[in-house]
Amino acid sequence: MLNIENLVLTVSDPETGAETEILHGNSFALAQGEALGLVGESGSGKSMTLKCILGIEPSGARVDGRIELDGTDLLASSGEQLRRIRANDLALIAQNPHGALNPVLPVSRFLVEGMSDARTMSRADAEAKAAELLHQVGITDTERVLRSYPHQLSGGMLQRVVIAGAISGSPKLLLADEPTTALDVTTQAEVVAILDEMRREHGLSMIFVTHDLDLAAAVCDRLAVMKDGEILEIGTPEQIRDHPETEYTRALMAARPMLYPAGHPAQEEGAHAAGAAGRPGSGDANDEEAGA
Ligand SMILES: Nc1ncnc2c1ncn2[C@@H]1O[C@H](COP(=O)(O)OP(=O)(O)O)[C@@H](O)[C@H]1O
Ligand SMILES: [Mg+2]
């Protein structure tokens, strides 16, 4: 459904005009319903790759290559056509959910405004649909959450609201950029589980960006390992684990011993670096309170 060929992103310094190549000709494809993990350390170009797909690269930047979504070349599309495709087919879930919500409007307004059929619905129907969306992402006290303003809800609760809003637009492709990095570890696991469930239930494709190879392996069908603006290798989590092609991938793995049984060479090399990272079980979405 998504086919990216030879993607090059070049930014230029507004003062000197000096050009820097940020992405160096990356190619990958995504099948319908597939989840691809884009994994790499900070600064490796993961977010910029998503920005190129969304058409929100830095001003003055140049994007070369091909980004084809269900047969439409997004780079060749006009502004209006690209705007329509972005609005209908793509949904971004970013690290900080506050950025997605207007701080002076209640959650109900955010959800209702995101509904493609809001104009043809009565207010009561729209609110009922908003409550149903919240139910789908594990929120049970929907009345309270709908009436709340963003600052009154925890990060985990807000990220659920953002996911609900993304689903309501019936996108084809979810772009999740470190969607759980800003959350505490228990909430992280819950939000990942919800994202995964929504993706499967709605048959969505997803690009899941993270620096956490272990997390990506748990969520994704395939992983693309990025370093310095380049995709080094792409494979299933098993392929990446059993036959890493680069030292860099081995180092990323070594930092996360959870994925690898005791005695695995990758673990012994770097077990000290990782600490006791665990994947907690899921809890009740409604336990957490505001102010987290
Ligand atoms: N607005 C910008 N203008 C120019 N370069 C940028 C901008 N934002 C990020 N970069 C550079 O692009 C590279 C990739 O960044 P990014 O995609 O944000 O990395 P990641 O998401 O993997 O941490 C980095 O070297 C970063 O310094
Ligand atoms: Mg990033």
List the helices and strands and how they pair.
Elements: E1 2-12, E2 19-30, E3 35-39, H1 46-54, E4 62-69, E5 72-73, H2 79-89, E6 90-93, H3 107-114, H4 123-136, H5 142-147, H6 155-168, E7 173-177, H7 185-202, E8 205-210, H8 213-219, E9 222-227, E10 230-235, H9 237-242, H10 247-254, H11 265-270
Parallel strand pairs: 3-8, 3-9, 6-7, 7-8
Antiparallel strand pairs: 1-2, 1-4, 4-5, 9-10
Helix pairs in contact: 3-6, 4-6, 6-7
Question: How is this structure best described in words?
Answer:
The protein is of the alpha/beta class. It has a single domain, classed as P-loop containing nucleotide triphosphate hydrolases (Rossmann fold, 3-Layer(aba) Sandwich). It has eleven helices and ten strands. It has helices spanning 46-54, 79-89, 107-114, 123-136, 142-147, 155-168, 185-202, 213-219, 237-242, 247-254, 265-270, and strands spanning 2-12, 19-30, 35-39, 62-69, 72-73, 90-93, 173-177, 205-210, 222-227, 230-235. The strands form two sheets. It has a six-stranded mixed sheet with strand order 6-7-8-3-9-10, sandwiched between helices. Strands 2-1-4-5 form a four-stranded antiparallel sheet, covered by helices on one side. The two termini are 38 Å apart. Residues 2-253 form the ABC transporter domain. Its main location: membrane. Residues 272-284 have a biased composition (Low complexity).
